[in-house]
Write a structure and sequence with these properties.
Layout: H1 5-31, H2 42-69, E1 73-74, E2 83-84, E3 87-88, H3 89-110, H4 124-145, H5 152-178, H6 180-203, E4 208-209, H7 224-245, H8 249-257, H9 260-275, H10 286-309, H11 311-334, E5 341-343, E6 349-350, E7 353-354, H12 356-368, H13 376-400, E8 404-406, H14 416-437, H15 446-466, H16 470-501
Antiparallel strand pairs: 1-4, 2-3, 5-8, 6-7
Length: about 500
């Protein structure tokens, strides 16, 4: 008998999910709360679980699609109903089923474990930061695994999961350690069960795992990467829900919420991490990784804009994306203002333009207008120069990776007219963005803008060297550093004038 992916869910994942959902609902009817003394209300527990379901689905979807795209795993014909992107609908369901099942099992355990004391144990700060550093080191080491075929699957798992675990542990590692018996049980039981179910699925060829992109280590017949995957995903769920229900979690969250820069730095950190493995991956991976990294950078800066400018920040985002799309569409159809060029990709288009390009116009321009202080025109001028400096690296990279191509190019396949177009377009978009943000725009944390620009210079320079483009790497990085020196010198001069006037 051929077992399909849908039948796998009916046999292995849906019954335990239904059982623990029934137990949870029954507990609420008997006590008014599905988690005993851990949560103030059942509504809180419901919302916490719903938030984890949403996050798990959004965060796992692009990663899972990429692995199937890379043929890390796949599905024999006739085993799935249909696919969306590269992934079958049953796998999207798995994201939600596993998260809900593990979460409800944790809620079941919460009724049998004592709520930990609110007071923090001595050394809690050290517990949090040491553990976070360990997870970040795991993420960094896993990048090296991506340089080999055999380490591909393991490396992709850890690059994807370890940074999130580091963030979780930095927030509440002490809360997790304090409830270690419950946490360990909540992780171990569903993990071992899913190991068994996965072993059965592979044995019945519901899905297959690549032999060339894995280590070949198979304890008890299960690829060690699969065991690692179910372990880290359950870690993510149990860590998150345990911290959400800890007595001091809300106070700690409120203290972070009052520091806006910490919120936008979270997606910014993921952006930087997403840039690291890209040059080490096969050529076909560049475009999806570029989409991920550009999306993360734009999201981080959108959060920064909304936190500092409220709805005007969202308005500036919409305006910059619209203008970026317009100038790119005009450029491709008429050759003005960049020169004759054409996009070479068919996926990820927004009305004929790769959607990462308008997002890039917003992100790069937003950073540019936060490099300098002064009048609106001066900041627009500084942003435009910064955009040209960045594009001395960006366009050669995109041309080299086949995302778009120019008809003629004097500099690494790029015509000099392109940089004139970037300056003029950047000047206009930067000025309009400032008009939307405020009248007049007051400088908001220029140090943060300069720091992001410096990280961009480093990552683009390193990436171009690894992609075999040393000249654009040197030229672009030098130009971006020169813009930074100009911004710092201007800030020092203005500070000197202010002190003299005082």
């Amino acid at each position: 008998m051929t077992i399909t992916y849908a039948m796998f869910h009916v046999i292995f994942t849906l019954p335990p999910l239904a059982f623990f959902f029934w137990r949870y609902q029954r507990a609420k009817r008997l006590t008014g709360s599905g988690t005993g003394g851990w949560a103030p209300t059942a509504r809180f527990s419901n919302l916490a679980l719903l938030a984890h379901l949403i996050i798990a689905f959004i965060y796992t979807t692009p990663w899972d699609n990429y692995l199937v795209f890379r043929d890390v795993w796949g599905y024999p014909p006739g085993r799935v109903l249909f696919t969306i992107g590269y992934v079958p609908i049953e796998e999207y369901a798995f994201f939600l089923i596993q998260t809900a099942g593990t979460g409800l099992f944790l809620y079941f355990l919460m009724r049998h474990f004592t709520v930990p004391a609110r007071s923090l144990p001595q050394g809690s700060t050290q517990i949090r930061w040491v553990g976070s550093v360990v997870f970040l080191m795991i993420a960094a080491v896993s990048v090296a695994a991506l340089t080999t075929d055999a380490g591909t699957y393991a490396g992709l798992i850890l690059v994807w999961a370890a940074p999130v675990l580091a963030l979780q542990w930095a927030f509440g590692g002490d809360m997790i350690v304090r409830s270690w018996r419950m946490v360990l049980t909540a992780i171990a039981v569903p993990t071992v069960y899913l190991w068994f179910a996965d072993w059965v699925a592979i044995g019945n060829e519901i899905w297959w795992i690549s032999e060339s992109l894995t280590t070949g280590i198979k304890p008890f017949g299960l690829p060690i990467e699969e065991a690692m995957f179910f372990l880290v995903t359950n870690l993510l769920v149990v860590f998150g829900l345990t911290m959400a229900h800890a007595p001091e979690a809300m106070d700690r969250f409120k203290s972070i919420r009052t520091t806006p820069k910490l919120l936008w730095l979270i997606p910014l950190t993921f952006w930087a991490l997403s840039m690291v493995p890209t040059p080490l991956m096969p050529a076909g991976a560049f475009y999806p990784m570029a989409q991920i990294s550009t999306g993360l950078l734009a999201f981080a800066l959108l959060v920064h804009a909304v936190l500092h400018y409220r709805m005007r920040g969202a308005g500036a985002f919409i305006t910059a994306v619209a203008l970026g799309w317009l100038v790119e569409r005009l450029g491709e159809t008429t050759g003005v203002p960049f020169g004759e060029y054409a996009y070479q990709v068919e996926r990820g288009l927004l009305l004929g333009v790769p959607w990462l390009v308008p997002l890039g116009w917003f992100a790069f321009t937003y950073v540019g207008i936060h490099l300098f202080t002064g009048s609106r025109w001066f900041r627009a001028l500084g942003a435009a120069v910064g955009l040209v400096a960045l594009d001395l690296s960006l366009d050669p990279l995109m041309v080299g990776q086949g995302i778009w191509a120019f008809e003629h190019g004097a500099y690494a396949g790029v015509p000099l007219s392109n940089f004139v177009g970037w300056f003029v377009s950047g000047l206009i978009i930067a000025f309009v963005m400032q008009s939307v943000l405020a009248r007049p725009v007051q400088p908001v944390d220029p140090t943060a803008g300069r720091a992001v620009f410096a990280v961009q210079a480093f990552l683009f320079g390193l990436g171009l060297v690894l992609f075999g483009l040393p000249v654009p790497a040197l030229v672009g990085t030098t130009a971006m550093l020169a813009v930074l020196v100009w911004a710092l010198a201007d800030a020092r001069a203005k500070a000197g004038k202010g002190a003299a006037a005082g």
